[in-house]
């Protein structure tokens, strides 16, 4: 739809600044975003919109920057109920001695429902409109996200051993295929396959996961090269680096999302770049668990698509993707010994368009372009802690931390209005969260 043909629209957002991400990272001023139904109909200079558009609802955002909703490409949403339960530990002792025992005790359908809602509330408040989840009871995660109108890639878990969600790989795969069939035509829910890690999934289920991905088009997300120990142990026990093993099994491809990649050799980079696999960078979880540092600038230079994730709130310990973008930019500078290694604009692209690419949905998500879905956020830059403004992208990455997200829309539907959630009953949610906190505290004390 062009400006000439528009006469009526559902929503018009008048923005002081606009960061559309595409076709360039440039910041535009005094722009109107026109929404019709679920999609962006046009982006016009405000004076043109005044002349040509009659919107049912006009939202004036005179101190705000408007941009695409953030895409948090890796997490375990319901682990928000374990936030702060086990800090200051390295990955394997965090998992083996604390998190897996706690999951064995507490994870249930109700835990997943409440913990996922708590995570969604935090993500919406900090600018995320699409998240990726890898956790138990994915059918509940999918339903909860769908019912709240949040977009989600929901990866069903795949491991060699029994968990609260199933007896082993065959059960996970058959329940997972049912999840894919249920949601394959949904715009909100992207069902996906979540083999946990190379050290918890053996070759046969990995190959079955690949075949399921090829048959259905579902994405496959895996924790990969998270620590030096993982890589050294694989070399010792299998004689292969994990990425090499995945490549040999045919598991690295354009549908594959590799989470972490803190240990990267030249050969690993070639495998990633040649296969078209995506890397999901989770710098804060990597820092907190002392897992290592992903060389983001090198991967970017070599043409690997690099998106951002928070990981779960028990290893981050928040789900603020603006904060993650800041950390990614800072860490890249330190790792490369180059202050320009990853700029604010690149960090915003990682948090938006690159996530959409990893999902295979960059034709309709990840940037503000006419025709794309209306997943949009607004951030109020009038507060003293983000004044004065020279480049709003700089403030979003280096000064903001997601505190000032005032509005968001997903599929053209308001999710945050003046900083308040429209679709989640927060007081009721907090009662349930406090109940879980009480139960978990009591067990810790016993
Ligand atoms: C199979 S469901 C997901 C499984 O992963 C665990 N987990 C959470 N964070 C991490 C991480 O950084 N590396 C490896 N595994 C992680 C989570 O507790 C679930 O058991
Ligand atoms: Zn994870």
Automatic annotation (TrEMBL):
Full protein name: 5-methylthioadenosine/S-adenosylhomocysteine deaminase
Record function comment: Catalyzes the deamination of 5-methylthioadenosine and S-adenosyl-L-homocysteine into 5-methylthioinosine and S-inosyl-L-homocysteine, respectively. Is also able to deaminate adenosine.
Domain of life: Bacteria
Binding-site list for Zn(2+): 74, 76, 223, 311
Family matches, as SUPFAM superfamilies: Composite domain of metallo-dependent hydrolases, Metallo-dependent hydrolases
Family: Belongs to the metallo-dependent hydrolases superfamily. MTA/SAH deaminase family.
Group of enzyme by EC: hydrolase
Keyword annotations from UniProtKB, A to Z: Hydrolase, Metal-binding, Zinc
Record's catalysed reaction(s): S-methyl-5'-thioadenosine + H2O + H(+) = S-methyl-5'-thioinosine + NH4(+); S-adenosyl-L-homocysteine + H2O + H(+) = S-inosyl-L-homocysteine + NH4(+)
EC number(s) recorded for this UniProt protein: 3.5.4.28, 3.5.4.31
Binding site for substrate: 103, 196, 226, 311
Residue ranges annotated for the Amidohydrolase-related domain, each copy included: 65-412
GO molecular function: 5'-methylthioadenosine deaminase activity; metal ion binding; S-adenosylhomocysteine deaminase activity
Pfam families: Amidohydro_1
Cofactor(s) needed: Zn(2+)
Signal peptide: none
Free-text comment on the cofactor: Binds 1 zinc ion per subunit.
